[in-house]
Design a protein that fits this description.
The complex is a heterodimer. By secondary structure, chain A is an alpha/beta fold. Chain A has 11 helices and 9 strands. Helix content of chain B is 78%, strand content 2%. Chain B starts with a helix and ends in a 6-residue tail after the last helix. The chains are: A alpha/beta, B mainly alpha. The structure holds adenosine-5'-triphosphate and magnesium ion (MG). The site of adenosine-5'-triphosphate has 12 residues of chain A, from helix 2.
Chain lengths: 278, 289
């Protein structure tokens, strides 16, 4: 990734003055930001700050009160094939009678092939996706017989099978152990190295600084966005998380730790390609 | 087995099979009570069709029922999506409201018309063999059995053709939308099928039976299955079993056939739950309190 390339790169995701509400209660208020491609970005904020709502709005799953979203400079319906959405794990019934493989196959479903069989090349992509998240040997298992971390891997595999350019993931790190965390991070940085963009909803401040290149700090309003060093200040975090001192007192600790990571992740180089401002 | 018994059991099994195929997806989508809702919501359509046509000829009643069944579906969607009410609340409101209108219409016109809730709501499977229809050179057969056969073929074709779409939609509707799948269209085609099966079965076997057949075999199969196709097959088999066993249960007790079939379906479910609990207790004695 050259700096030159970054200068000319058009934003992959633009959110313009977006406001959204549930039952007239505003949940997002005048959100406005741009995100450049080729990076891993985090949407970070406390519980109930509207992170899931923001993702649902970007994916056209609910109607905004005002504002609009652009993906790859255009409308979602024109670039659907390039965008992959990973819902929050709890949003589906994991007792559903399907196998791991059947779920990952859904990543190859399209409006036009729903009444046909999947092609051999689709099946190959499914195999590759299962392989990448280390779930190939579990392919025939029913999804109810998976651990929380394995469920997250299945969702990740389904997204990978879509072969998109932009991945929007809702809390993929919830309920995973260290091994799965590393596996997921490995997959994500591989995506970034291919020039793809990953946007991750995340609520844990401790790890956010390690995981992401840039951040969107949210609490109904947009508190800050840009390269993580800019976003992660005492002032912005206090604004987003309120006076929760336990969180703030840990902050300096977190940053200090991140500067000298204990575990090697192959993930600590900072591309800093997030848009400044806000 | 007498010819009457054969026709009753066959008709029950065909209706049960259709209901099980669609009901499985209702159960998976956590919309099991939708059959109940539709079977109530069709009442005003039936009454209005009767008031207009002036007789209890079944085609016009059927059209009326289908129309108000679909109206209920639209109403539920409207309340859920536009008024942003929860889905179960939307279902509850829509069907009680439509049912109330039906009751109101009946009571307003009582005396003037020969129509009461009993005859509208309780089709009777015991009368199946009486309604013979000529099939030209093939001889004759009971009309309800033929309708039930058509219904089963239609339901089976629909589920086979729509299998991937129904699976995707039932498992993860938001994800389906994110793929650009027109989920509304799928939803309404599915609801139209459920309405059709409910309304037709309604006339053949009665309301109580169809509501039970939509839910109980499918829910039992859900408990026993790890994958979708075996679940569908099992639901159909359980439905047929309920029809067969229920008939003889009713004969033995000299009771209602529909009652026998529902009771047997319920008993199969109960046995399943008990066996599963027993197995679980054996595998993990501490899991049970
Ligand atoms: N379906 C809904 N109906 C009504 N209110 C909702 C609904 N979904 C979310 N909300 C409300 O909207 C606000 C934002 O919710 P959202 O799920 O976007 O938060 P979040 O940042 O994703 O939180 P979490 O970290 O808990 O996942 C919350 O106050 C929540 O109560
Ligand atoms: Mg959320």
């Amino acid at each position: 990734m050259s700096t030159e390339g970054q200068l000319h790169r058009a934003p992959v995701l633009e959110v313009h003055n977006l406001s959204a509400s549930y039952n007239r209660k505003p949940v997002l208020w005048d959100i406005d930001f741009r995100l450049e491609g080729g990076q891993i970005a985090g949407i970070v904020g406390p519980n109930g700050s509207g992170k899931t709502t923001l993702l649902r709005n970007i994916m056209g799953l609910m109607e905004a009160d005002s504002g609009y979203v652009k993906l790859f400079g255009g409308d979602l319906k024109d670039v659907r094939e390039k965008v992959s959405y990973v819902p929050q794990r709890e949003s589906v019934d994991w007792d559903f009678p399907v196998s791991v493989r059947e779920v990952v196959e859904m990543g190859r479903f399209r409006s036009r092939n729903l009444m046909r069989r999947l092609k051999a090349q689709d099946q190959d992509l499914v195999d590759q996706a299962l392989e990448k998240v280390g779930m190939l040997e579990y392919a025939q298992r029913q999804i109810s017989q998976l651990s929380g971390g394995q469920q997250q891997r299945v969702f990740l595999a389904r997204a990978l099978a879509q072969n998109a350019d932009l991945y929007l993931m809702d809390e993929p790190f919830v309920g995973v152990d260290a091994a799965t965390e590393d596996a997921i991070l490995g997959v994500l940085s591989a995506l970034r190295n291919q020039g793809k963009t990953v946007v991750i909803v995340h609520h844990d401040l401790q790890t956010a600084y390690q995981y992401f290149d840039s951040m969107i700090l949210l609490n109904t309003r947009l508190v800050a966005y840009g390269p993580k060093e800019k976003v992660f200040t005492k002032e912005t975090l206090q604004e987003a998380y309120g006076g929760r001192l336990t969180v703030l007192s840990k902050l300096s600790e977190v940053i200090a730790q991140s500067e000298f990571p204990v575990r090697e992740r192959g993930f600590k180089e900072n591309t800093g390609s997030g848009d400044g401002g806000a | 087995m007498s010819m009457e018994a054969f026709y009753i059991i066959l008709t029950g099994a065909l209706v049960a099979g259709s209901a099980a195929l669609l009901g499985s997806f209702l159960v998976l989508r956590k919309m099991a009570m939708l059959g109940d809702a539709i079977s109530h919501a069709v009442l005003p359509g039936i009454v209005i069709a009767f008031l207009i046509s002036g007789h209890r000829e079944s085609l016009s009643l059927l059209i009326g029922a289908a129309a108000s069944g679909l109206l209920a579906t639209f109403l539920i969607e409207l309340l859920h999506r536009k008024a942003r009410l929860q889905e179960d609340a939307s279902i509850g409101i829509s069907f009680t409201w439509l049912f109330a209108i039906g009751v109101l219409l009946i009571s307003a016109y009582t005396g003037q018309v020969d129509l009461d809730q009993e005859c509208v709501l309780y089709g009777e499977i015991a009368y199946v063999p009486l309604d013979q229809i000529s099939l030209g050179s093939l001889g004759s057969g009971p009309r309800p059995t033929l309708i039930a056969g058509g219904l089963f073929v239609l339901s089976l074709s629909y589920v086979i053709i729509s299998f991937k779409g129904l699976k995707l939609l039932s498992f993860n509707e938001d994800y389906a939308k994110s793929l650009g799948v027109r989920t509304q269209l799928w939803h309404f085609s599915f609801m139209a099928m459920v309405s059709l099966v409910t309304v037709l079965a309604f006339e053949i076997v009665g309301a109580i039976l169809i509501v039970a057949l939509l839910v109980v075999p499918a829910a039992t199969a859900y408990l026993l299955s790890r994958s979708l196709i075996p679940m569908l097959v099992l639901a159909v088999v359980l439905g047929a079993l309920a029809s067969f066993g229920g008939y003889y249960l009713a004969v033995a007790l000299n009771g209602s056939i529909a009652g026998g079939m529902v009771s047997l379906a319920g008993a199969l479910m109960l046995i399943t739950v008990l066996v599963l609990r027993f197995q679980k207790a054996k595998a993990n004695p501490k899991a049970l309190k």
